[in-house]
Amino acid sequence: MEELKKLIDVLDRKGKSSATALLNYADPTNLETRLFQLTQTDTGIDETELIGKLYGRSAKLGAFRMLKSRVKRKLYNQLFFLDTENEKIIDKLASIEIRCRKLLYQAEVLRMMQEADLAEQILIKTVALASESQLVKYEIDALEQLRMHYAERKFDRRLFEECVSKLERLYEVYEIEKKVEAIYFEIRFDIKLGVEASHKFLGKLELLIKDLEEYWAGSKSSLVFRRYHQLKMIYYEVSGDFNAHILYLKDAFHIYSSGKIHPLYFSVPFNKYLLVFSYLRAKNYKDGLSEAEDLKAKLETGSVNWYAHLENYFLLAVHSQDYQLSGKLLVEALTNKYFDDNFTFAQEKWILYYEFLHYITGFTLSTKINRKLKHTFQDKKGFNVWSLILDFVLVLEKNQPDLLQREIDRVRKFISKYLVATEDARTRLFLKLLLVAGREPLDAKSCKRKGKYLFNKLQQTPTVGIAYAETEIVPFEHLWAIILHKMEGKQG
């Protein structure tokens, strides 16, 4: 009760402007409220129209600018009251960081207002929160303010020395964290320069990962582990060594389960998602499907994470040639009530998956879906390739010579324009196989014979890391066999 009384007294004596710091939504006659409501309900309104509706004439430009400035200031004040503890809106660790910042701000204000006792109580709470969450930076900030308080006002030697001792230990960890942050963001910048730059920096990345591993071993900081873990993910993304990635992730789960990593710095569902994806790329379908089914049951049906995971699960089923399971997963994805909430690009991918399964097995949905979605995939080495392949195989199946010649020309131009890099080898080889099929659409034996060299090269060409290309919707080797099988069926 004493703390409450003190706060009321502080605000009564020193917080006179706080009553006008926020918008009064309950007063529709207030110009500030009216400006807010007009802007909110009519996003296309311009300043001239606003001035007319607020003042009745256009001669109030100066008054309007002052009004707009006041409203913006009050709206910025209201950022302090956003629901930053809602985990559906914001990551839990980020939420705790914001809470620490708010507490530190409150303590700083109270200290400046000569309310050191109230500030001390807040700082003690901040230290506890930051320590429990391993937020070293904020723990240091709070302890530094407490050190000042103990040295200048409270004169408690025991508390002062405890504070100094904690700071000495934390400074060592924080110095390591700052080094690690600098390394991490330098690599992130290099990676963003493009795939070629990423490849050049692969050797550098290996050395830096070793450094981070040593920093983590020395500091036991979960933040350091998180950056080390993130750089390992980048390394496997670029190198494409998915078997090693699987072993590493299993080791990371073991480290986490032994209590060496704070739960705020290691997301089990996300890392399980990565594990499922690596099983897919490593062609370990048995373990991948088992992990995928287990993770699916733990995700909120229809959520963004659920759809992202379901995509990997579907691809695992297709790659393992379990088309019955593939169809079941497609039904779940396309008929879910939240399907239309996905971005157009994501919806179009699922339609593309549906079209391929329909081509392979004749699978159809009993319910109508929006098949008119038409999104141009921007990545010429990603889903644009699969859109091109789908158009080709459907025309090939119908055996329409004029349309087939058009598709042959499209594929030739696509190969020469977009598939010139070393990492494009598998896609380039498969599209050349399509050209073989396009030249003799009714002779499966001849296509198989003439495409044998290309097919053998395709089998010998490994898939590249995910930094270079999307996962094949259907393994090219499987799709070529399906095309030949369909051609044989027509001949029979």
| Main structural class | mainly alpha
Shape: globular
How many β-strands, per DSSP?
A: 0
Poorly predicted ranges:
none
What profile does the largest beta sheet have?
Answer: none
The number of helical elements comes to 23
Strand coverage percent: under 5%
How far is the first residue's CA from the last residue's CA? 90 Å
What can you tell me about this protein's structure?
By secondary structure, this protein is an all-alpha fold. It has helices at about 1-15, 30-40, 45-55, 60-75, 90-110, 115-130, 135-155, 155-190, 195-200, 200-220, 220-240, 240-255, 270-280, 285-295, 305-320, 325-335, 345-360, 385-400, 400-420, 425-440, 445-450, 450-460, 475-490. Helix 5 (about 90-110) runs parallel beside helix 7 (about 135-155) and helix 18 runs antiparallel to helix 19. The longest helix has about 35 residues, at about 155-190. It starts with a helix and ends with a helix. About 25% of the residues are buried. The model has no long low-confidence stretch (mean pLDDT about 90).
Can you give keywords for this protein?
single chain, 492 residues, mainly alpha, 23 helices, globular
